[in-house]
Amino acid sequence: MKETLEIERKWLVIDKVIFPEDLAVEKIKITQVYLKSEKKERVRTLEVGKEVKYTHTIKRAAEGGGNWELEREISPDEYCELVLRADKDCYIILKQRNVFFIDGVKYELDIFSHPLKIQILEVEIESIDQEVYVPGWLGNYIEVTNVKGFSNKRIASKPEATMKKIESILQEAKC
Hints:
The protein is of the alpha+beta class. Helices cover 17% and strands 44% of the residues. The protein has helices spanning 76-83, 152-157, 159-173, and strands spanning 4-13, 26-34, 40-48, 51-61, 67-74, 93-102, 105-114, 119-125, 141-143.
C-alpha cells in the first residue's frame, strides 16, 4: 500500500441534477465515519448494488495543495473494530456518489443526505491550476476548492458553519 497525492477541485452544485440519459453513471452509497485520532482518519462503507466494500483512510496535507492519502481495503471485522474509535464530535456522513466520465476525466458528484443536504462535485486533477470543464447540465454551481468548510471532515464536524458559509456564498453570488 502506498501513499498517493490527491489534488482536487470542488464545486457546490445548487440545482437539482438531472443526468443526461446517455451518460453512464455509477452510483455508490457511502457511509463515512471519522475516527478519534491525531491524524485525519476515517472508515467508510461503499455499497454498489449488493456489494459492500470497507476502507480505512489516513490523510495529511501536502505542500502546495492537496492531500497525501493512504487508503486500504479492510475486512468487515476490522471496520467494526475501527468504528469503536468514532469521533463523537463528528456526525456520520451519508451520501450517494455519482461517478461519471467526460472526455476521459473522472467526475464525482456527491449528494449528501446527512448531516447536510448539499451536492458537491469533485474532480481529481494533476495540478491545482489545471483547467476543468464543468458540464452545463449541472445547472448553477460555485467553485469552493479553496473555501474553508467544504471538506468532508469539516462538514462532519461543523455542519452549521458550512451552512452559514453556503448562505454567505449564495448571498454574495446573488443566487
